[in-house]
Amino acid sequence: MNSDDRIDADDELMWLDDTQWVTLTELTVCSGLTESELTELVEYGALAPAAEEGGQWRFAAHCVTIARRACRLRNELDLDAHAVAVVLGYLERIRELEAQVRELQARLPRGRR
Asked: Spelled out in words, what is the top-level CATH class assigned to the domain 3-112?
């Protein structure tokens, strides 16, 4: 588990797992992005609410990692929400391709890696 898999806000530490959900408000606290910025990321497809309860979006806990990465991209590269969404999409695609390469390499005989 890496440092992005935990929430450390206001000296509170919470480990994230796939069974947890966060609200939009909780996501703003954990990520450093505003509700408006997060809403834009949803509109651009970089974040996807997993459910809606009482008119409020609920996100899978892994979205905290994505939102934190978006905040770092925005701050470090001075990107707008659309550019952040594009970069996040490329980073996710790279992660998927790297996983495929590892899987294919694992299938090769030992001497051919």
From this structure: mainly alpha
